[in-house]
Amino acid sequence: MPSAHVPDLDSLTLLLRVEATGSLGRAGAEHGISQPAVSARVRTMERLVGIALVERTARGSTLTPDGVLVAGWARAVLDAADVLDAGIASLRARSEHQLRVAASMTVAEHLLPRWLVRLAAERPQTAVSLEAMNSSRVEQALLAHRADLGFVEGPAVGSGLDTQVVEQDRLVLIVAPGHPLTRRRRGIEAEELAATRLVQREPTSGTRTALENALAGRAALAAPLLELSTASAVRSAVAAGAGPAVLSQLAVSDDLDRGVLVEVPVRGADLTRLLRAVWPTGQRLGLPARDLLRIAAASRGRNAIRNRHARASRPDPDSRPATGR
């Protein structure tokens, strides 16, 4: 802790100006204060350190021998403060011109590109790096300070992280056209979905964790038919006829619109989920991170309207032919 006898940096700077000019008046002029104010500051310093620092004469003001010693030490302190100030300025400049983002696959592929375009328009000087990974690894990257801001899709966030909801998503059961499930006019019950072997994401993915939570309390989930590390790999496997899967509506919307995949309604389970921005607890976000968070949160209402319109434009499952085409 700083000693109770150490003057503040501004007072030490003023003491050096008295030493350099030999005059309280000239030191005050250089410092932007009046001579009486300089005299008051010197008296305050002398009371603080407990010794006389300045000798006043008719010819001017000089430092006492003890004052010369204090001034020498003060010069080293002020030099160190300049180094500290330059370092802090460099860190602030870096935080305002760099942004490291870690995001779950769904957010990284289907939401962040649009958000980053808007951020680039607002902050063209900011360099952004984006790493796509599953939600568990996003949290690890934030806690290890390898990212400034993260986005996750799991139903819960681990300890040590603050969070803000930025979007709502919906999980959908998908199959290839012609799959037997496409002949189910009313879809399937949640209990049957739990017992169905699915093409799944890896165990630590937000999508799989959200599905497990949505079906919790029913029969134990069936073992995966396949485990794949990306949503695009799951989509391709389903389209090729490997079996059904549950993925984000954001990830399969285009394939559903083109008829490459078919959605099967699920009854008895709430498959909606919240997408969240996350960052270390107590960490003050830099300006670029705060701007990206604002952009993401502002898009929530627009995406909800767009998703409702997309669902309304697709054929009613009850009106599809039995082949699903």
Which features does this protein show?
325 residues, alpha/beta, Arc Repressor Mutant, subunit A, D-Maltodextrin-Binding Protein, domain 2, 2 domains, seven-stranded mixed sheet, two-stranded antiparallel sheet, 13 strands, 20% strand, rod-shaped
Determine the fraction of residues in helical runs and give it as a percent range.
Answer: 40-55%
Number of helices: 12
Order of helices and strands: HHHEEHEHHEHEEEHEHEHEHEEEH
Distance from first to last alpha carbon: 75 Å
Low-confidence stretches: 304-325
Q: Helix- and strand-based class?
A: alpha/beta
Molecular structure report:
The protein is of the alpha/beta class and 325 residues long. It has 2 domains: 9-95, Winged helix-like DNA-binding domain superfamily/Winged helix DNA-binding domain (Arc Repressor Mutant, subunit A, Orthogonal Bundle), CATH 1.10.10.10; 104-319, 3-Layer(aba) Sandwich (D-Maltodextrin-Binding Protein, domain 2), CATH 3.40.190. It is built from 12 helices and 13 strands. The strands form 4 sheets. Strands 3, 4, 5, 6, 10, 11 and 13 form a 7-stranded mixed β-sheet that branches. It has a two-stranded antiparallel sheet with strand order 1-2. The protein has a two-stranded parallel ribbon with strand order 7-12. A hairpin with a 2-residue loop joins strand 1 (54-57) and strand 2 (60-63). It is rod-shaped.
